């Protein structure tokens, strides 16, 4: 391991040592090997490509599936003084253009893009001239959504190998079954890849599952018995709010979090929880991605997840500090019924898929053959209302269209207002001289952001800017809009709508290529994942962690000794030992006054428990404490 890597780790992250496997993974990358890294949630995956990226210099190209994850990692890198950028749907063409230029001519170290971006002609042309030294595929399990079927845009990643044949590729994930691991190696064309896999065992995390009708009071008991920060996961946004309010009524510090809240509110709630101002966050699965809070002591699932991959990642947010933590799942028969219904709802017919595709084209007035890689804001409730379509059918039809590579629907992500000066300093100065209001606002921006405004995009808060200048926010916004119209700046107002992108030019809906046989195969795979969840929840004997490890392909694993099933087994063993000692004492006491026939000894001591009686007698006979005398009676020494 080059000393430079450890220096970078200390300089930017403040750590003096790497975690287990991190050092080996980084060494592999620095030696130029393609690398597949499987590290559990909280195992420090991002460091495995960020540190070698800085050591190698130039640009690290990071392919990531989620906008929120991109934004979080770019933000974290910038806080550490490392230059990073991201390109995602919803950005203006000018902003994309400037970002790509900065990656070519500037000193950007990390560029995050979605896999769909690789198909963009603009990206294809610009990337040829970028100093790419490393390609990282983050959250690589998203490549294979069912464990065998790849999102089409991910298949474009190997095209980068043709451009950068000597550049190593590292793929990273926290959850991958053996089949997915093989798929990653094959479909990403990782050449003679070194594979590093940390056990999925979490020695400090105890898994407990209860089938129970009164989930609320069981949750309350757990929260009162296990001190410290907690997360409660649910599917329904409305129920998140209800449960948080109920916990507050029980004097538990709690709040709720879901994608229906504005980005600003979500950010404030998240910060309050991270800073221990809120103890319990009741949330949908929108909460947690990219959050690195080490001291979560309890993760509760009040709903069953669709698959064990999601469950393992969410439960794994507990105990990242390696201290004892608990993952508690509470469910009942209604939850099973709902999960079954969700699976049935997730299989749209070809007619439904074509109807929804045509409605999308009509909604945006897109002609056949047009709109390849064009992005549009998308409001699902408004869309469903406009075309009188059931939201559940639309959701699953769009998911299938996304799976087939026709569209991409990004998650609703809050994007703060962004600004960049398009003119040069002389042009801006001339404008400032002519207009006092523009002068006041641009000077305030330059004082805060300096020369970064020329050639880079910065996040701005119009309300704070207006307050600092004692102006009305509307006035500041209008002036920024005017500067945008004049071509002096590129001003992108904040937004948080979901974004729909056409990955291919619009097809004729009637002739849209659909393989329903393929859909049937996907449905079967999804069903297998659902069944694995149900089997895990219903497991009556085996160690919970062992079940998870074997699901992810680990062999010859040991019981964890701390899940509910292991503890029950320990208690059963302890009870059996107590019963055995009690029976032994009773037998010896009954024979204290002389030998007895076996039947009479049984009547005096066994209390009808024939198995315990036989076991105890046989053991005492073997060790010589009892024996049969010449009359055939049992006697003691």
From TrEMBL:
GO biological processes: DNA recombination; DNA repair
Domain Helicase C-terminal: 218-361
MF annotations from Gene Ontology: 3'-5' DNA helicase activity; ATP binding; DNA binding; four-way junction helicase activity; hydrolase activity; metal ion binding
Entry GO CC: bacterial nucleoid; cytoplasm; replisome
Catalytic activities: Couples ATP hydrolysis with the unwinding of duplex DNA by translocating in the 3'-5' direction
The keyword ATP-binding is assigned to this record: yes
EC number: 5.6.2.4
Superkingdom of source: Bacteria
Domain Helicase ATP-binding: 26-194
Keyword Metal-binding recorded: yes
Similarity comment: family membership: Belongs to the helicase family. RecQ subfamily.
Protein name: ATP-dependent DNA helicase RecQ
Species of origin: Persicobacter diffluens
């Amino acid at each position: 391991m080059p000393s430079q890597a450890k220096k970078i780790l200390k300089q930017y992250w403040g750590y003096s040592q790497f975690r287990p496997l991190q050092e080996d993974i980084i060494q592999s990358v620095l030696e130029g090997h393609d690398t597949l890294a499987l590290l559990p949630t909280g195992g420090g995956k991002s460091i495995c490509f960020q540190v070698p990226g800085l050591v190698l210099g130039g640009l690290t190209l990071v392919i990531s599936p989620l906008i929120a994850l991109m934004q979080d990692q770019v933000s974290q890198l910038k806080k550490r003084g490392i230059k990073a950028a991201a390109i995602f749907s919803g950005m203006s063409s000018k902003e994309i253009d400037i970002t790509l230029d900065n990656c070519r001519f500037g000193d950007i170290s990390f560029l995050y893009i979605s896999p769909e971006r690789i198909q963009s002609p603009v990206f294809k042309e610009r990337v040829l001239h970028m100093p790419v030294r490393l390609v990282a595929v983050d959250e690589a399990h998203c490549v294979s959504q069912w464990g065998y079927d790849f999102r089409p845009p991910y298949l474009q990643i190997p095209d980068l190998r043709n451009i950068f044949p000597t550049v190593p590729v590292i793929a990273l994930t926290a959850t991958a079954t053996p089949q997915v691991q093989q798929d990653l190696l094959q479909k990403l064309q990782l050449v003679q890849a070194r594979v590093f896999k940390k056990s999925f065992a979490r020695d400090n995390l105890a898994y407990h599952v209860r089938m129970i009708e009164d989930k609320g009071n069981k949750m309350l008991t757990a929260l009162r018995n296990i001190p410290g920060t907690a997360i409660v996961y649910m599917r329904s946004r409305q129920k998140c709010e209800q449960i948080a309010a109920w916990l507050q009524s029980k004097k538990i510090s709690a709040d709720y979090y879901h994608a229906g809240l504005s980005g600003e509110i979500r950010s404030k709630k998240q910060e309050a929880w991270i800073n221990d101002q809120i103890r319990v966050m009741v949330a949908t699965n929108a909460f947690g991605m990219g959050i690195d809070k080490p001291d979560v002591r309890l993760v509760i699932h009040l709903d069953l997840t669709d698959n064990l991959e999601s469950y393992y990642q969410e439960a794994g947010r507990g105990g990242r500090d390696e201290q004892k933590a608990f993952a508690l799942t509470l469910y009942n028969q209604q939850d099973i019924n709902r999960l079954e219904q969700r699976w049935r709802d997730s299989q749209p017919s070809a007619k439904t898929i074509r109807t929804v595709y045509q409605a999308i084209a009509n909604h945006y007035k897109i002609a056949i053959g047009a709109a390849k890689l064009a992005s549009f804001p998308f409001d699902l409730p408004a869309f469903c209302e406009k075309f009188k379509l059931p939201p559940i059918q639309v959701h699953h039809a769009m998911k299938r269209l996304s799976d087939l590579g026709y569209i991409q629907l990004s998650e609703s992500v809050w994007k703060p207002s962004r600004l960049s000066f398009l003119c040069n300093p002389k042009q801006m100065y001339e404008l400032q001289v002519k207009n006092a209001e523009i002068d006041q606002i641009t000077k305030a921006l330059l004082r805060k952001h300096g020369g970064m405004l020329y050639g880079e995009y910065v996040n701005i808060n119009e309300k704070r800017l207006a307050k600092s200048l004692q102006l009305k926010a509307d006035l500041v916004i209008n002036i920024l809009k005017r500067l945008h119209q004049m071509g002096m700046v590129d001003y992108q107002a904040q937004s948080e709508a979901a974004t729909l992108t056409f990955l291919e030019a619009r097809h004729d809906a009637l002739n849209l290529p659909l393989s329903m046989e393929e859909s049937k195969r996907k449905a079967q795979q999804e069903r297998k994942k659902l069944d694995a969840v149900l089997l895990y929840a219903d497991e009556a004997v085996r160690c919970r962690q062992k079940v998870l490890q074997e699901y992810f392909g680990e062999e010859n694993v040991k019981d964890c000794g701390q899940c509910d099933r292991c503890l029950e087994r320990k208690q059963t063993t302890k009870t059996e030992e107590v019963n055995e000692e009690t029976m032994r004492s009773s037998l010896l006491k009954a024979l204290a006054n002389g030998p007895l026939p076996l039947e009479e000894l049984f009547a005096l001591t066994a209390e009808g428990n024939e198995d315990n009686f036989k076991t105890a007698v046989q053991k005492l006979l073997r060790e010589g404490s009892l024996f049969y005398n010449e009359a055939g009676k049992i006697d003691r020494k």
